[in-house]
Specification:
The complex is a heterotrimer of chains A (979), B (80) and C (419).
Chain A lengths: L3 E3 L7 E10 L2 E7 L3 H7 L6 E2 L6 E2 L12 E4 L3 E5 L9 E4 L26 H4 L9 H11 L14 E13 L3 H12 L4 E4 L15 H16 L3 E4 L2 E7 L3 E7 L12 E13 L3 E3 L12 E3 H9 L3 E3 L2 E6 L4 H10 L3 E6 L6 H9 L3 E4 L1 E7 L6 E6 L3 E4 L2 E5 L2 E3 L2 H4 L6 E3 L4 E3 L7 E3 L9 H18 L36 E3 L4 E2 H9 L5 H8 L12 H12 L3 H4 L11 E2 H5 L11 E2 L3 H6 L2 E6 L2 E7 L6 H14 L2 E4 L4 E6 L3 H8 L12 E7 L5 E11 L2 E6 L4 H15 L6 E4 L4 E7 L3 H8 L15 E6 L2 E6 L8 E7 L3 H11 L6 E2 L2 H11 L31 H4 L10 E8 L11 E4 L10 E9 L4 E9 L8 E6 L4 E8 L14
Parallel strand pairs in A: 2-8, 9-10, 9-14, 10-11, 14-28, 16-24, 18-19, 18-24, 19-20, 32-34, 35-45
Antiparallel strand pairs in A: 1-17, 2-3, 4-5, 6-7, 6-8, 12-13, 13-14, 15-25, 21-22, 22-23, 26-27, 29-30, 33-34, 35-41, 36-39, 36-40, 37-38, 38-39, 41-44, 42-43, 43-44, 46-49, 46-51, 47-48, 47-50, 48-49, 50-51
Chain B lengths: L1 E4 L3 E4 L4 E5 L12 H9 L7 E7 L7 E7 L10
Chain C lengths: L6 H9 L17 E7 L3 H14 L4 E4 L15 E2 L8 H19 L10 E5 L2 H16 L5 E4 H7 L15 E5 L3 E2 L2 H14 L3 E3 L4 E7 L2 E7 L2 E11 L4 H7 L7 E12 L7 E4 L5 E4 L4 E12 L7 H14 L7 E12 L6 E4 L5 E5 L5 H18 L13 H4 L16
Parallel strand pairs in C: 1-2, 1-11, 2-8, 4-13, 11-18
Antiparallel strand pairs in C: 3-7, 4-6, 5-6, 9-10, 10-11, 12-15, 12-16, 13-14, 14-15, 17-18
Helix pairs in contact in C: 2-6, 2-9, 3-9
Classes of the chains: A alpha+beta (979), B mainly beta (80), C alpha/beta (419).
Chain lengths: 979, 80, 419
């Protein structure tokens, strides 16, 4: 069965270029210039889809982005695509959706018989019993029934780009208004970007037959193309308007090919000084029983299929309308030799239309609407009711319920549209600064007035963008506009038996809206949410206004009081991949690599993600798994000498006459009296008195310090320093500079580290006397300045060697080479972190913004007399409570078991439940003690030293016995450090 | 949204770090009791309307600066 | 008249379609005084009114909503419920909430579609898995379900994530709470409204509170767009606009208003059966019963009352979506929107008395208000009815920062400078 056929000639399709495509696996043909929708109609595919809930047969209803019915899976991986928006290209594969076994014979249509049960809101009223969690039983069935198309789990083979652009005037839409405004603005010299979602410029003009219109269109397009300052983007949709004139555009590329680096789509963030919305209007359907049968179509769409695609109804069309515009469709069809019957809701019809209809031999039924539409799989007969009752046999039923301006974009900034009685539709409720409207979006539908207004809007926009030189206006064609007359019509006049659809895609009927009204879901948002109206892929472009009109009627109030919905971006469905662009997968966030990365790699490092960094985790010489390798690396440092990459540490250069005062303020401990050439460990608090970060600060000169931060907090601390200096302590003469990326660092650690340094820097005096613990020494090697700090994270005799990043690799190789006789090897992050646990140094897992100085056993370093950031709030009551969870060491008492990070701690006699008395932060195998040890926080802290505890890990059903000990597991006296 | 950096001009908000209410006076260093610091640090006027606030051009020149923004519209006024 | 909802009632109705369903809730004119008023007809306000009537026998109660009920965050969130909290005070509160969710559809005779589909939080480093373990252990020790998953188990459960070498952060494992899941968000507002209305509570829409009627320090009523209404007790539950309303009563609160965006794609057949959260960046996603992918990320990062977001955040959220779930690339975003959040310094809420007698405050929900709805109403109703905190909301006092009793669930410290 079919309702349409293609004419032998006419239309804008290129009949020289045949295009082959498949529909549900069957090969079909079309022409270049076709959309998938027009090609399907031309091939006689009237029934193309099944509806969401009732699986009713559906066909293509529109010729644009508003299409609610004709959704297809394209090329196997793109579900729910409206056929009206797909350019027909060779090899395109379209698959029907949401029907089994096929759209022609869909067993799911059984849902239609249960329709009375599926009344709106039915799922809120049932599926509750018999048990508390019964929904878990029903939900899978509901989910499988919902969902329309199928997504693909395969990786997207296509490529997406993002771009940023700037212009003076952006024109959205290339219909008569858009072409006019773009040209006027272009003539003024402004940089203009004109975007059009269609592949051709012209908008509604592309569906006109009048030669004057076509002449006008080609003239303007030619001039626009000739202007160097005008950029035209077709196949480009303005998807959203954001603050400060940011418009997000999506451009779809014709010849995309990921293998050749050609993107499928480009998402453009465009900032324009002025914006002209020339977005046009969308025709709305009429609501009557069985208005969803295949072959029922918007009148303007039928006209587009006729004039642009040369597709006509097989023999006979019935047109029903409440306004004048549908007559254009009627006349064009009649002139093409199709028998046309016209039903008009209005009793009084303009005489010129009546006489033309008579001339063309059209049957006319004024004051008449539709009572019912018959035909199982496509329209066969229509029952008229009203002033006339009649049964009309036809192939196609075209409807026009008036026109809805496309106010979406203008509303994205929060300006609500307002109802305009004259056109019975919503228009923009105003414009933000430098925003302008032109054409049908403003509620003006006549060509001449659109051009006239367009000339003004184009000039205004150019002026707003700084181009006030008057430009020649665009000429009109001197036609006479006819007034737009509409008699709004929201509900069916008769209550036939069939369902009268308001939202075709979501299967929302007049009855559903009445039910919502009965139950009090009368606010527009309640109506939408309760009935799912406007929630589909079309976001209610053809349904929302009809529903609002109907609800206003039920509430017996003007539409202006009934409210409107909130229009949200995007205007049409926007692939998430296109928004993400190339910032996905490995490019998701840039890797930060240490200047020693290549050197680490060369030495067999296995890397691990640490925040944005890739850090050397362990080295091949020590083993092939982290569990075994780190122990050998620890042993190396405890017994010989190792070298580790610590370049990720934050490094801040602090200089200026007030540098000492500044550091004195931000650290709890004092730095003013730190001698030049000496380093000191420091801790800083946030204003709230909680520990923010720790690190070491070295006094390089009287007014020059070098501060390190933890890797994790490097950015935060730098920004905090800048905040304090630039906004609060502006009187301090201090400058801070981040050297994190400019300098590399390596730790040389172990009892033999001094020997290693002596070999590496034979000219330097690295003796204990010249470079004692917490000392600093600048040395030179081959003319490069190198800073050696005698600091230890591991607790061994150890040094940090800091060097400008570009020399890091060579210095690393140099040290490894000359100290080879000492057995030096690199050690990684796992060993670094484990060595510090043995020594009882806190790190990221303990510095989690919840702990105070005292919690971490650092209270004693805070200056008693001096003031420092966070001092006041540090003394808040609960932060000083004696039983706070504080840092302890933990020793495993059951040698055959393990300690685990994240274990919850209990006292030996406690019931094992609740929140416990603390938890384990970090665990390691101690190579010195030959047992598992851990750091943790425990209620009351070291007051409980020596007590037995239980470490509970219920996730693995484990409880192990352990003991609270000092967190300094090794060398409590510091003999090794000072050796 | 775009933020006017005093050095670099209008830049996308993505380049900036927000620094909070700038109308609150931070007690001078070493002064202020616990209550003064509590009120400064924890309480906010949080107006729906003009709001003085700090921003840092953190992915640019790293300057911290003040501006007034209407929190009901995101419109940025003259710099205070 | 109240007509219970059931499959039978539905069938009866299908057979006699001319007898309409009664209104879900009535629309009475406001009286001149009530025993108690709840300002805010969102999820929390409606739940509070319901529990005032149900648990405490206070039925001379009005809920005042300046717009339509559920017009705030209860209808704007990503519908996730869970109780994976580890800080003493939070754990018990959110678990109580989850327990109330479990029986809510029955309790309200309104199907809120409480789906215990399970939430998986994915760890991207061994250290992160340890911190998840701490959380899971605390949950288990408090009788809350939690299971640790290794990488292999995650691959089996969520086969569609990116496990290839192209993944920027490999997935080391995760933690699952099976009882966590999603709820049909609007139904929560409607269900509580209908149930409260049935118990005699007045639900008054389009009624904006413009000021408080004070008797010295004591709040005794409110001025509204529909006239003055006196009340014995007044509860504020207007998260997003808390500062604004509190200020009318002369209160300054530890709250800043920020926008959080949410996203939904086109509906597709079931692909994702769990709620998924990611440890690399704040990102969460689930597939609604209707088929759309519902997802979100971090707040935009500066205070604003505009219920719309900035594009850079939209991009970062899309980047997360595609990087974690390649299946998201081809799916089309249909709609994104913003809701305004009360953000608090420590990320935890407030429920309790204020320094004004008879005036009670509920707010500061940050982005965890939805899952808290039942327990929030439960405890707030208790606080209002008895003029004292319930043991479950004792930690949520407005003055906790004065005492240093922060409830920092995520260990990120004060949020103002953290983005």
């Amino acid at each position: 069965m079919t309702a349409f056929r293609r004419l032998d000639k006419g239309g804008r399709i290129d009949r020289e270029k045949s295009v082959n495509f498949t529909y549900d696996g069957k090969s079909l043909g079309g022409f270049a210039g076709d959309t998938l929708a027009s090609a399907l109609l031309a091939n006689g595919k009237t029934l193309t889809s099944r509806s969401f809930k009732y699986h009713r047969p559906r066909g293509i209803m529109s010729a644009g982005v508003e299409e609610p019915n004709g959704l297809f899976a394209i090329n196997g991986n793109e579900p729910n695509i409206p056929a009206t928006t797909v350019d027909l290209v060779e090899g395109l594969a379209a698959q029907s959706q949401n029907a089994w076994p096929s759209v022609d014979f869909d067993l799911m249509a059984v849902n239609s018989f249960a329709a009375p049960l599926f009344q709106t809101g039915f799922y809120y009223k049932t599926f509750m019993g018999p048990f508390k969690k019964s929904w878990m039983f029903y939900e899978p069935f509901i989910r499988r029934a919902a969902g329309i198309g199928k997504g693909s789990c395969e990786k997207d083979p296509d490529r997406y780009e993002t771009a940023h652009e700037f212009c003076d005037v952006l024109v959205v839409g290339a219909g008569p208004a858009g072409l006019t405004t773009a040209l006027v603005a272009g003539r003024s010299g402004a940089r203009v970007v004109l975007v059009e979602q269609d592949l051709e410029l012209g908008g509604q003009l592309l569906s006109e037959t009048d030669r004057d219109f076509e002449m006008w269109r080609t003239t303007q397009v030619a001039e626009l193309r000739s202007l160097a300052n005008v950029t035209i983007r077709t196949r480009t949709t303005a998807q959203g308007l954001y603050d400060d004139n940011l418009v997000v555009l999506l451009q779809r590329h014709e010849n995309h090919d990921a293998a050749r680096g050609r993107p499928r789509q480009t998402l453009i963030s465009l900032r324009s000084k002025a914006i002209i919305f020339a977005t046009g209007a969308i025709e709305r359907p009429l609501v009557f029983p069985n208005n969803d049968r295949p072959g029922v179509m918007l009148a303007s769409a039928l006209r587009t299929y006729l004039n642009r695609f040369a597709i006509v109804p097989l023999k006979r069309a019935l047109i029903v309308t409440n306004n004048d515009t549908a007559y254009k469709t009627a006349f064009d069809l009649a002139e093409a030799g199709i028998a046309v019957t016209m039903a008009d809701h209005r009793n009084v019809i303009p005489s010129d239309l009546l006489s033309r209809a008579a001339m063309l031999g059209m049957a006319m039924f004024p004051g008449t609407g539709i009572a019912d539409v018959e035909g199982a799989k496509q329209v066969t007969r229509v029952q008229l009711a009203g002033n006339h009752s009649a049964t009309i046999e036809c192939d196609v039923l075209a409807m026009s319920g008036g026109w809805n301006p496309v106010v979406h974009l203008t509303s994205h900034s929060g300006i609500k549209p307002v109802y305009d009685d004259a056109i019975a539709a919503f228009v923009p409720g105003g414009y933000a600064k430098n925003h302008f409207g032109a054409g049908a979006v403003t509620g003006k539908f006549g060509f001449e007035s659109v051009i006239k207004d367009g000339n003004a809007a184009g000039a205004d926009a150019a002026k707003a963008a700084g181009f006030d030189k008057p430009a020649t206006p665009v000429a009109t064609i001197g036609a006479k506009d006819r007034a737009y007359k509409i008699s709004p019509h929201w509900a069916p006049k008769t209550t036939g038996k069939g369902k009268a659809f308001v939202d075709f895609q979501s299967d929302v009927t007049v009855k559903d809206i009445r039910t919502a009204h009965d139950e009090g879901y009368v606010a527009v948002e309640h109506l939408k949410r309760y009935t799912t109206l406007g929630m589909g892929t079309d976001q209610g472009k053809t349904s929302n206004i009809n529903a609002i009109g109907l609800m206003a009627e039920l509430r017996e109030m003007p539409i202006s009081q009934a409210g409107t919905t909130t229009f949200r971006p995007p205007y049409t469905g926007l692939a998430v991949g296109a928004i993400a662009g190339r910032t996905v997968g490995l490019h998701f966030r840039p890797y930060r690599l240490s200047p020693l990365h290549d050197a680490n790699k060369a030495h067999g490092a296995t890397f691990i993600e640490a925040g944005l960094w890739m850090r050397a985790w362990y080295y091949a010489w020590a083993g092939s798994t982290p569990e075994t390798a780190y122990i050998r690396e620890m042993e190396l440092v405890r017994n010989g000498v190792g070298i580790a990459d610590i370049s990720t540490l934050g490094k801040i250069d602090v200089q200026g006459p007030d540098a000492a005062e500044f550091l004195n303020r931000v650290y709890v401990n004092g730095f003013a009296k730190l001698p030049v050439g000496r380093a000191r460990y420091g801790v800083m608090l946030s204003d709230d008195g909680v520990v923010l970060d720790d690190g070491t600060t070295t006094r390089i000169a009287d007014i020059h310090y070098y501060t390190t931060t933890t890797t994790a907090q490097a950015g935060e601390v730098m920004s905090w320093f800048e905040y304090l200096l630039q906004t609060q302590w502006t009187d301090l003469k201090v400058h801070v500079t981040s050297l994190t990326d400019e300098w590399a660092g390596m730790a040389v650690s172990g009892p033999k580290s001094r020997e290693a340094l002596q070999l590496a820097f034979p000219d330097a005096d690295v003796s204990n006397e010249n470079l004692p613990y917490m000392g600093c020494l600048d040395v030179h090697l081959d003319g490069v300045r190198i800073r050696i700090l005698r600091l230890s994270f591991s607790g061994e005799l150890a040094y940090e060697v800091h060097v400008p990043a570009e020399y890091a690799g060579s210095l690393w190789e140099h040290v490894l080479k000359v100290a080879e006789p000492l057995g030096i090897r690199p050690y990684g992050l796992e060993a670094l972190a484990s060595l510090r646990i043995e020594k009882g140094h806190v790190a990221g897992l303990e510095l989690d913004h919840r702990n105070t100085l005292d919690d971490l056993g650092l209270g004693k370093i805070a200056g008693k007399e001096k003031s420092y950031v966070g001092k006041e709030l540090r003394f808040r009551e609960a932060l000083q409570a004696p039983d706070r969870w504080s840092l302890v060491g933990i020793e495993l008492m059951e040698p055959d078991k393990k300690l685990r990070g994240g274990s919850i701690l209990f006292s030996a006699g406690d019931e094992i439940k609740g929140h416990g008395r603390g938890y384990i932060t970090s665990v390691t195998w101690s190579t010195e003690l030959k047992k598992f040890i851990a750091l943790g926080l425990y209620q009351g802290g070291l007051k409980h030293e020596g007590e037995d505890i239980i470490c509970a890990f219920p996730l693995k059903n484990e409880q192990v016995k352990a003991r609270i000990v000092s967190p300094h597991f090794i060398d409590r006296e510091g003999a090794r450090l000072n050796a | 949204m775009r933020i006017p950096c005093p050095h670099c001009g209008q830049r996308d908000v993505g380049e900036f770090r927000y620094g909070g209410d700038a109308s609150k006076a931070r007690p001078a260093h070493g002064t202020g009791d616990m209550k003064a610091w509590h009120d400064y640090y924890f309480l906010f006027d949080n107006p729906k309307g003009p709001h003085d606030e700090y921003w840092q051009h953190v992915l640019g020149c790293r300057q911290w600066f003040k501006l007034t923004r209407n929190t009901a519209t995101n419109e940025i006024g003259e710099q205070p | 008249m109240f007509k219970p909802y059931s499959a039978l009632a539905l069938a009866k109705h299908a057979l006699s379609p001319d007898r309409p369903w009664p209104r879900a809730w009535n629309s009475p004119e406001p009286k001149s005084s009530y025993d108690a008023i709840v300002i805010g007809g969102g999820g929390h306000g409606l739940a509070t009114a319901y529990y005032l009537a149900k648990n405490h026998g206070l039925t001379n109660v009005a809920v005042l909503e300046r717009n339509y009920i559920g017009s705030g965050n209860v209808g704007r969130n990503t519908t996730i419920i869970r109780s994976n909290y580890m800080i003493d005070g939070n754990t018990q509160f959110f678990e109580h909430s989850l327990k109330l969710w479990e029986g809510l559809s029955h309790e309200l005779n309104f199907n809120c579609m409480v789906s215990h589909r399970g939430q998986v939080v994915l760890a991207v480093s061994p250290a992160q898995l340890d911190t998840f373990a701490r959380r899971g252990n605390i949950m288990r020790l408090n009788g809350i379900d939690a299971e640790l998953l290794d990488r292999g188990q995650v691959m089996k459960l969520l086969p569609y994530l990116d496990y290839s070498k192209d993944a920027r952060w490999p997935i080391y494992g995760g933690i699952i709470q099976e009882r966590a899941g999603t709820v049909r968000h609007d139904a929560v507002a409607w269900g509580y409204a209908r149930a409260a209305d049935t118990l005699g509570v007045h639900i008054i829409e389009n009624c904006e509170v413009t000021g408080f009627v004070m008797d010295g320090d004591k709040a005794v009523g409110v001025e509204t767009s529909r006239g003055k209404i006196l009340a014995g007790k007044i509860g504020i539950a207007v998260a997003g606009h808390s500062s604004h309303v509190a200020k009318m009563a002369g209160l300054r609160v530890p709250i800043e208003t920020h926008v959080l965006q949410a996203f939904v794609t086109e509906p597709v057949k079931p692909m994702v059966d769990h709620v998924i959260s990611w440890g690399a960046e704040l990102f969460y996603l689930s597939q609604s019963d209707k088929g759309g992918m519902v997802f979100g990320g971090h707040i935009d990062g500066f205070n604003t009352y505009t219920q719309r977001g900035q594009f850079p955040r939209i991009q970062t959220v899309a980047e997360c979506a595609v990087s974690l779930l390649p299946l998201m690339s081809k799916l089309r975003l249909l709609r994104h929107w913003g809701g305004v959040m009360d953000m608090t310094p420590d990320g935890s809420p407030f429920i309790g008395r204020t320094e004004r007698p008879n005036l009670y405050f509920n707010g500061g929900w940050c982005y965890q208000g939805f899952k808290a709805t039942p327990a929030s109403g439960w405890t707030f109703a208790h606080t209002i009815a008895h003029d004292e905190e319930h043991e479950l909301n004792r930690a949520y006092s407005l003055d906790r920062f004065e005492k240093g009793r922060e409830l920092d669930e995520f260990g990120i410290g004060n949020w103002t400078y953290k983005q």
